[in-house]
Write a structure and sequence with these properties.
This protein has 468 residues and is α/β, with parallel strands linked by helices. Strand 4, helix 5 and strand 5 form a beta-alpha-beta unit. The longest helix is centred in the middle third of the chain and has 36 residues. It binds guanosine-5'-triphosphate (GTP) and magnesium ion.
Length: 468
């Protein structure tokens, strides 16, 4: 192998030290069989990714960008619990339609796999079902792509019932067209289809092959999951609608994974959300109510992090979660100021924001980790994003200014009213206190004379009560 186009990641200290102990503690059961034995297995199916070799194709951009992409893949692989042994990048105009890498390079990969006793090769992209099958034939170990790797991390990190269902749906969607290819060569190698009889004669329709049966059952399960997810999303939609009616503005924290979104939510609201130096630590949105320095109430939501080429299946499956961002009045777009390529992260995040229909939501760029960022790089970032704020969720630096900026950016949805409310409608007066700014209160014969700035809905209710 030509040392010029191979990069070694065997040295763990070279990568950011991930706190993997906890993850390892609840690590996967090594499932050697890659064959789908039962459709229900898809939910729990965990690929054995233990000793891995990475492979990528560098089609455009700089060497450094290609390098970074593979370094990020290594980080993802480690987050998934793998030991990364080696990484290979091949320079090509386009990936080979049959084997992704050129076929000669794919052959070399087989030698690397043997030399390192690797059990998996992870490709930095999304492989077609055909490429997957072909590559497994050549390297003779398990082959997965970046998409599946990210899906796998999500599956490991999902905690809530909704999160788990969303990930399962995304995995099934990914697997459906790949059932035939995946693991075929491996099971042949193992001496036949180990799980071949699992489908059972009784479960198979007339003339159906095992693959067709599997596909049909996966589709049925996907339908069921979609239905369940609809149910689960109802309460969230109801809550959001109630907040909206009450005129409470919503602020969503979005940004690249590991940029410090949860840390910022904790810093501002004391929410106590899990913070971890790992990718995709947060999958479930946390919403907290808080107040601006002037006392105006708003909600602040932490969300799932984004990454370059976030698998489409995930965006689709997490659609309801991501609506927290789409429906926000303001997005705090968090950028890790200490990252090597913060501008690349910003554009990757904006790409996803556009894809989920949040492209038009007001955005405030927040450069985080100011305490460890290179000041020169921060200055450069500010040149490109002059309205950005610089903070550290860790030390609290810049947070006061951020809170003021949020306040200034919240939509003014309050309406001035001057009404006399009958005494029996004390409920409306307490709503005015909790939802708006009460300016004056005076008790006169006809009722409570109130001047205040209140949300639209409350203004309507107050005026109606005053008329009665
Ligand atoms: N030095 C420094 N580290 C920070 C700062 N903010 C966050 N971190 C660290 O960055 C890592 C990621 O922080 P999180 O808050 O979990 O990031 P996140 O954006 O929620 O990440 P995901 O949920 O995984 O997408 C943790 O190790 C934090 O301690 C900061 O201002 N300065
Ligand atoms: Mg988080």
């Amino acid at each position: 192998m030509n040392p010029d186009d191979a990069f070694t990641y065997a040295d763990d200290s070279a990568m950011a030290g991930l706190e993997l102990a906890e993850r390892h503690a609840l690590r996967r059961v090594a499932g050697l069989s890659t064959e789908l034995q039962d459709v229900t297995e898809v939910e729990y199916r965990q690929v054995r990714l233990e000793r891995v070799v990475l492979a990528g194709v560098w089609t455009s951009g700089t060497v450094r960008a290609a390098d970074r992409s593979l370094a990020e893949l290594a980080l993802l692989a480690k987050t998934a619990g793998s030991v990364v042994l080696e990484g290979v990048i091949q320079r090509r105009d386009t990936p080979d339609p049959a084997t992704y890498l050129g076929s000669g390079k794919a052959g070399e990969l087989r030698e690397i796999v043997i030399a390192y006793e690797a059990d998996t090769v992870i490709f930095d992209g999304e492989l077609t079902p055909g490429q997957l099958r072909k590559l497994e034939e050549i390297v003779k170990v398990k082959v997965v792509d970046r998409t599946w790797l990210i899906l796998d991390i999500f599956a490991q990190h999902a905690r809530s019932r909704e999160g788990k269902a969303q990930v399962s749906l995304a995995q099934m969607q990914y697997l459906l067209p790949r059932l035939r290819g995946w693991g075929e060569s491996l099971s042949r190698q193992a001496g036949g289809r180990a799980g071949g009889a699992t489908g059972g004669v009784g479960t198979r329709g007339p003339g159906e092959t095992k693959i067709e049966t599997d596909r049909r059952r996966i589709r049925m399960q996907m339908t069921k999951l979609r239905r369940e997810l609809k149910q689960m999303e109802k309460s969230r939609i109801t809550q959001r609608a109630a907040r909206h009616r009450a005129g409470i503005p919503a602020v969503a924290i979005a940004g690249y994974t590991n940029s410090g979104k949860s840390s910022l939510l904790n810093r501002i609201t004391g929410a106590g959300v899990l913070v971890e130096n790992a990718l995709f630590a947060t999958l479930d949105p946390t919403v907290r109510k808080t107040r601006t320095p002037a006392g105006r109430a708003y909600t602040l939501a932490d969300t799932v992090g984004f990454v370059r080429h976030l698998p489409h299946q995930l965006i689709e499956a997490f659609r309801s979660t991501l609506e927290e961002v789409k429906d926000a009045d303001l997005i705090l777009h968090i950028v890790d100021g200490s990252d090597d390529a913060p501008l690349e992260q910003i554009s990757a995040v904006r790409e996803v924001l556009n894809e989920i229909g949040a492209g038009n939501v007001r955005e405030l760029i927040v450069i985080n980790k100011a305490d460890i960022a290179d000041p020169e790089q921060v200055t450069q970032l500010l040149r490109v994003e002059p309205h950005a704020l610089v903070v550290s969720a860790e030390t609290g630096e810049g947070i006061d200014a951020l809170l003021l900026a949020i306040e200034a950016d919240l939509p003014s949805r309050l309406r001035d009213i001057d009404v006399v409310v009958p005494y029996q409608r004390g409920d409306l007066i307490s709503r005015a206190h909790s939802q708006g700014d009460v300016l004056t209160i005076e008790y006169i014969e006809a009722g409570t004379h109130l001047t205040a700035r209140v949300p639209e809905q409350l203004a309507t209710d107050l005026l109606q009560a005053a008329d009665e």
